[in-house]
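Question (not urgent): is this output format expected?
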Amino acid sequence: MTFKSLTALALAAVLLPLSPVHAADYDPPIYVDQAPDYQPVEVGSGWYLRGDVGYAINKPYEFSETPAGFSTNTQGFSGSVGMGYHFNDYLRGELNFGMLPTSSFDNAFVTTCARTQTTTVVNSASVVTSQTSALESPVASCNGSNNGQNRAFDGMASAFVDLGTYVGLTPYVGGGVGIAYTSYSLTQNARKCVNGNPVSTTDLSGNTTTITTTCLDPSNYAGTSSSEKQFSVTYSLDAGFAYQVSKNLSLDLGYQYVALPSAKYVSFDSAGTPSINKGLSYQTVKLGLRYDLW
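Got this back:
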């Protein structure tokens, strides 16, 4: 082999690895996109649930004086449940539904009831004679009563301003407006007439006389009744403070003034005379819990 041939082979061996490589000679690179970081979504952020019980300081249906035979059952307790929303660290709103204080009254008295008297005579020969007559004066008195009842419920939309937190306590002020559903019933001069037990006597001749007293038509003793159900506007003024018991739970102690300017209710005066009144208001102390939904 000549020198030129050897030189050509040597150059070919050196230059061959430097030749360009075609795409078919290797696999393309694989790029993997990194998944985005998981961001948890807060469900119910800003919302909270609440419930409370209250007691009216001035029972709205109470009387300073009551006549003899007058009894009352006035419940100063109230309660509500609802939900609220924190718009920011200072402003929040609520929607609550509740039961307001209730009352019932009974003014008992003694009156008279008209009766008829039936006299039946059975003589010794078993001949029966009977006579019925109206009694102008009843043989016995009967019991009468005037009674009334009040009920109330409401739905209230309220706004509150939290005034900052100091030594764990968050004072607040607020107010609300809503719709109240009220009802009253009143019955006057209801009487309880009771039929008399038959009274029999027998004379020396063997004649038996039986006297029976019977109430007249019972509808005459039902008295007069009236009732009304209505919706009316109500409003409240509130103040209090909250204490955070845990991350999600707060204890709420507050004062509330509630007014129902056009609500009707029944009451009795010091002489026991019933009347229908308009306009109701009371003050209550409330204890409640708030649970944040986050």
